[in-house]
Amino acid sequence: MEKQEILVVDDDQHLRMVLHQTLEASGYLVQIAESGEEALSVLKERPVDLIVTDLMMPGIKGTELIKKAREIYPELGAIVITAYGTIERAVEAMQNGAFDFITKPFSISQIESRVQRYFEYQKLRKENQTLKQKIQKYQIDTKIIGESHAIKEVLNYIDIAANSDATVFIRGESGTGKELVAQAIHDRSNRADKPFRKINCAAIPETLFESTLFGHEKGSFSGAYRQQKGIFEESNEGTILLDEISEIPYALQAKLLRVLQEMKVTRVGSTVEIPVDVRVIATTNRDIDELINSSKFREDLFFRLNVFPITIPPLRERKEDIPLLIDHFLESFKAKYHYQKKKLDSGLMQKILNYDWPGNVRQLKHMIERALLFSGKEEVITEKHFRFEEEGNRNGSKSQTIPDEVIPLAEMERRMIFAALRKTDNHRTKAAELLGITVRTLRNKLNEYEQKGLMEG
Ligand SMILES: Nc1ncnc2c1ncn2[C@@H]1O[C@H](COP(=O)(O)OP(=O)(O)OP(=O)(O)O)[C@@H](O)[C@H]1O
Ligand SMILES: [Mg+2]
Q1: Atom of ligand 1 lying closest to residue 364 CA
Q2: Ligand 1 center–CA 145 separation, angstroms
Q3: Is 80 exceeded by the pLDDT of residue 356?
Q4: Are 43 and 19 in the same domain?
Q5: 282 lines ligand 1 (CB under 6 A)
Q6: Is the pLDDT assigned to residue 251 strictly greater than 70?
Q7: Domain around 154
Q8: Cis peptide before 105 (omega within 30 of 0)
Q9: What pLDDT, on a 0 to 100 scale, did the predictor assign at position 139?
Q10: In the predicted model, is pLDDT for residue 225 greater than 90?
Q11: Domains in the chain, number
């Protein structure tokens, strides 16, 4: 641990020396100043951890010094030294932010124990702060709503997984909350203060996969202008989320497996093995068993990832969570849309409960948000503000998208791609699934349309 630094301020040369030697012998770094003015000029340069100051000095008095110092560093601690008979002054100093006082004459052990007490208190205060921040963070970012048996089970698994370093494999349809669960595991683990890095495997171009994960040396391929750490090195001591793991190119799967087994990475263009300490969480919304059977995903990699499996059931299988989720979203959108109170009409609630939510919680959240926009200042959200889009598409979508005249196949393909995106609330993985193509192919097509100016609004 780094040494704590104490600034001793006293106009009495003998006392300065005694304090200096005592505190240094107790293992602190000690700075001295002969006056309040000198002390302030030291503090203007940089902070210290504690001031020990005499109260009665020519020029700036101890109390004033503390006041001024705390204007620069509001958290700075101070202990004042006061002569017998001036206790009132010490009390005044404490009202101005001093932590403790010592009366002259004092013994060496007295000063040692007061200083030690201050640092112990400081440590507890910091721990308390971190804990409070953590609690707040849970409540805001990773609040997992639901009281269904399934969600309770997931919450239980999150706690167990958080207490270990095991690789976690999260399965669930799109929008069921896989990323949320991954975040919760990290936040509740003892890696919480370390990095949590996510990469979406469906979004990385195939050629950049290896260097994104493991890094590269300068000049290892065209475009590698400088050395770059990969995500494994960057999240050292923390957690990596490999989102949509099924999209990792087959050739790279064996490499990833080796890294997970040995916990060492080799940057592209290098032969040096760098040890890493990371917890890996992987997710998929695809049927991984089918991908293994059709040799698109390596079974050995799957076994290595699937140490701690968590499956999040689709929303339609835990509809009792829907009212709670709606309340939660209505609450969380309050600030954004400036309303005091909103509720759902009971007829609409019934329809929502009857619906099968193919896009799961994400779809519910989006639809609530859209209904909020449409409902404007009205307090009650009704069916007229709510559009079950997919249902509309299901009946008679064909006549809408397949025109009577003959058009080029490429154009037909483009229209189908956008129809799929609309239908899935712009969710690429889901859209690709509907179209029977890979996310990568979908992405390539979209890039192509963008370049040719064929994007649809
Ligand atoms: N139980 C829940 N409580 C509160 N919010 C939730 C819950 N489940 C999901 N959400 C919210 O729904 C949205 C989608 O969740 P998330 O991104 O974690 O889904 P996902 O399973 O990773 O989806 P995809 O497979 O499409 O990436 C997020 O805004 C998330 O906060
Ligand atoms: Mg996700």
Answers
A1: 12
A2: 10
A3: yes
A4: yes
A5: no
A6: yes
A7: 142-313
A8: yes
A9: 56
A10: no
A11: 4
